[in-house]
Amino acid sequence: MLLEPYNQTDHPECKSRPDSGLSAITELDPGYITGPLSSVWKEWVKWCVEFGIEANAIIAVPYDWRLPPSMLEERDLYFHKLKLTFEIALKLRGGPSLVFAHSMGNNVFRYFLEWLKLEIAPKHYIQWLDEHIHAYFAVGAPLLGSTEAVRAALSGTTFGLPVSEGTARLMFNAFGSSLWLMPFSKYCKADNIYWKHFFEGKVGCPHRQQCDEAEYTSEYSGWPTDLVSIEVPSVRDMGAYPSIMDITENITSSMECGKPTLLSFSAREVSDGTLFKTILDYDPQIKALVYQLEKYYQGDPVLNPLTPWERPPIKNVFCIYGIDSKTEVGYYFAPSGKPYPDNWIITDVIYEFEGSLLSRSGNSVSGKPNNSSGDGTVSYNSLSWCKNWLGPKVNITRAPQAEHDGSDLQTVMNIDHHHGQDILPNMTRSPHVKYITYYEDAESLPGWRTAVWELDKANHRNIVRTPVLMRELWLEMWHDMHPESKSKFVTKAFRGPLRNEDCRWDYAKARCGFPEHCEYRYIFGDVHLGMSCRLKNTSTNLLQQYL
C-alpha cells in the first residue's frame, strides 16, 4: 500500500485502488468474525433498506484515502466523477441528494465544494447546490484537525493492527493525505482563492496565510494546550526559527549543563511546517512531509485544507459528533537514539476529559480546557467548530439517548449565541444517563437550517453504527421527506421503538418494555424473552407521530 512520498505514485510491483459500490463502505473485512469487527456504514445501509429506501438509491463514493486532495482529482478524476454522480442521481431520482460523510470524508466533501466553485460559473454555484444537495450530515468531522495525526507522523499509530509503530509511521508518512488531518489554528485563514485565480493568474502558487491578531495575543491557537513539546539535546541554526526558539539565558545555561531543551509548538506551528522544519536536523526523513505540506497543501490550486471553513452554502446542514470521551490533545516527544522510523518516543500524553486536562504521567498540565471533551479521537474544539455555523439565536434541547416518554426532556428557546464562542446549555444531567443535545437554528438564514447534535460518550470510529444515531438520522430524513411535516425539525418530545429490535423485555415488570408499542409474541426460533417482544403496529404507523 505504500506510495512514493514525493510524487504519490504506486509501488512498482503493487497497484492499489479503492473499491466501488456499497461493499466498499459496509465492511472493511467481510466475514463471520471479521465483518462485525470492521463494520462501517453497514448498519446504516440495513436501516435504510429496512424502512423502504431502495438499495440503488444509496450511492457510495469511496476514495483513495492515501492521496492528498489535488491528487484525488489528478489521478482518479475523483471530483469530476463525484459531480457527475450527483447529476445522475438527480436525473434518476428526480430530486436532490442527502450527503453523509464521516471523519476525513468531511474534508473530502469540503474540498469538493471549493473545487466546484472553480469548475462552474460562480453565479450558477448556489443554484447547482440547491438542485443537487438537499442536506449535508457531517458526522465526526475534524473541522480543525486532530492531534492524533501528529502522533502518527512522529511515532506511528497502529489502530490495533499487528504492526509495529515504526512500520505504521513509515506507511503514514508515505501517504500525502497524512497532513490532511493535521491540527491547525482557528485564527488563520488562507488568501482569497478567486483573487488568486482570476486576477493574479498564478496557478499553483502558495496560499498566503493571514492570521488574526488573536493568534498572537491568545495562547495555544485556540486549542486546549500546546500540541507538541519536544526534548532536544541541542539547538542548531537558532536564527532560522526565531519565532519558536527564543531561548532565554536560563535555558542556555541548562543546555551548557547537558540538559535537554524543551521546544513547544502550537497548532499554527504544526500546520505551517515550523515543527517539521525545526526537527529536520534530528530527523532528516521528515523532509518528505515538508515537501508534501508545501506542494499539496500550501500550494494546492483550489484550497489550503489546513484552514478553518465556514458553513457550507447548503440549505440544510447537520453537524453530529460524540463528546465526553478521554481524548488526546498534546504530546511530549524525545529522541530515542534509534534510526528512522523509530527515532522518536512519546514521553507523555496530554488528555482532555470532561472539561479538564490530564497527563499520562500524572504531572500538572497548563492550558485552557475545553468545556467538554472530544470523541476519543478528535478534540472537542475541533468537533464543535461547527457551532460557529449557528446563528445569533439558537434553540437547545437535551433528551436521553434511549427511548423515552419526554419526562426527562429539557428545552431552552432563543439562546443568544455570539460567533466564536461556545454555547453552554444550563441544563441538568441525571447520573448514569447518556444524553443527546440538539442545537438548532432555522431562523437566521431564510430557507436554511443548521443543527448540531452532541452525543454523550459516542466514540469517533463507532458512531456511524450506533443505534441512537441511526434512529435520529432516519427520523430527520423521514420528517424532511414527508409532505405533511409541520415543524422545522423532527420533534424531540418522545422516542419510542421503531423496529422489532428496539423492543426489549422488562425483567422488573415481567413484561415487554413500552407496552403501548410492544407486545410479547413468540415465534419459533426465539432464544430469549427479548427476541419475542415485537411491535404492535407497523413501523410506518409509528413514524406518523414524528411529523
Written description of the protein model:
This is Phospholipid--sterol O-acyltransferase. A hairpin with a 7-residue loop joins strand 13 (435-441) and strand 14 (449-456). The strands form five sheets. Strands 1-2-7-14-13-11-12 form a seven-stranded mixed β-sheet. The chain has a five-stranded mixed β-sheet with strand order 6-5-8-9-10. The longest helix is centred in the first third of the chain and has 16 residues, at 78-93. With 547 residues, it is of the alpha+beta class. Mean pLDDT is 90; it is low at 236-256. It is built from 18 helices and 18 strands. Helix content is 28%, strand content 18%. It has helices at residues 23-26, 34-37, 42-50, 69-76, 78-93, 104-119, 122-132, 148-154, 165-174, 193-200, 214-217, 249-256, 267-271, 274-278, 287-298, 380-383, 467-481, 539-543, and strands spanning 97-102, 133-139, 188-190, 209-211, 228-232, 261-265, 316-323, 327-335, 344-353, 356-359, 393-400, 410-416, 435-441, 449-456, 505-506, 511-512, 518-520, 533-535. It is globular, with a radius of gyration of 25 Å. The relative contact order is 0.10.
What is the secondary structure topology, with strand pairs?
Layout: H1 23-26, H2 34-37, H3 42-50, H4 69-76, H5 78-93, E1 97-102, H6 104-119, H7 122-132, E2 133-139, H8 148-154, H9 165-174, E3 188-190, H10 193-200, E4 209-211, H11 214-217, E5 228-232, H12 249-256, E6 261-265, H13 267-271, H14 274-278, H15 287-298, E7 316-323, E8 327-335, E9 344-353, E10 356-359, H16 380-383, E11 393-400, E12 410-416, E13 435-441, E14 449-456, H17 467-481, E15 505-506, E16 511-512, E17 518-520, E18 533-535, H18 539-543
